[in-house]
Structure prediction request, 379 residues.
Amino acid sequence: MSFLFALFFFFYSFYIHASTTDKTAKASLQLHVKISDIRQKLINSETFYKELTKSVRYWPQFTCLKSAFKKGDKDPVISTIRKQLTLLKITPSKPIADEDLFDEALEEGIQAFQKSHSLDSDGIIGQQTCMHLNIMPGTRARAIRQSLTQFDELKAQCGTRYIIVNLPTFNLLAINNDQVELAQSVIVGSRSRPTPISTYPIQSIVLNPSWRVPVSIFVKDKLSKVLADPEYLKRGDYLVYDSNGELLEPNHVHWKDVSLTYFPYKVRQQPGKKNALGAVKFNLQNDELIYMHGTPDTSLFNKGLRALSSGCIRVADPVSLALWVLNSEKVNREILQEKIDLEETVTLNIKTPVSVFTTNIPVWINPNGAIQFGMLNRQ
Prediction:
């Protein structure tokens, strides 16, 4: 698996309008931008890197050590990092009293760079940030060219109204008539349990869903917690059934005996605020048990690297996405929220088909409309 990277530009050419009635407005943005504008933005970025390749014969680099650099540190390497950020137009070119000092301005520049490369923006220069800073401009230009090719191939497959989930950059775009109408962050599958590249028609939307825990997820992720804490399942509102559908007392089950090949139980998490699927689930047509859903752990969306799930797609603002998918004058945010607040499971049918395209475009845009390179490249 190879990695492709790209650069963030300090300009936003898109007009961004955040919903004023949405409690999670920062998680979901309405972008008034056309798909053709995204393509042009990629072309402009490719041009920038090509010109940078011509103007800078030797790209300044430094050795990626196990130790990290942070604000307050002083080292000759810091001056090299300053040169990199200046050439990339991240920080302005101006005289510095001490080029070797990691000051506040450099920390801000590193944070911006990390955000643009799908990294946790902690302002610390560790190995991953070092690797990204050392990427040659020519490599970045080729990554953008690959993205343009993939983008054109994808566009030929899409209809009028669809959703793109770009796995490398961990974001989602909802598109109608070549206009991006909604953008938000997502959490996707980890490298060991990746989200497949595919097309998923949305079959229905479920409010206050229950969650039947797959055996693989229970054994790999939950079993150790159950063994360490006998009350884990009760506190999490999980119910356990035997093979005949009889409800069991979780503490009476011999959990030490279960495995991936022996699991004569069914585990279901009840709807509610603790449910791992959040308040909204999007049923997708597939045989791999892949679906989109919310999550009670919204703090994870603050991370840069969001390859954290077991394959499904967690969305930052499922209510806004549900309203977009339903596209009905009879259903507004207040009505949807009222149904959610009742904590009763309700299934809503989709009248106008909408498909979700999971993609592997290495250079894309983030929910703010700025160029972003992804962390993952899935073949």
Q: What stands out?
A: The CA atoms of residues 205 and 282 lie 5 Å apart. The domain at 60-135 is CATH 1.10.101.10 (Muramoyl-pentapeptide Carboxypeptidase; domain 1).
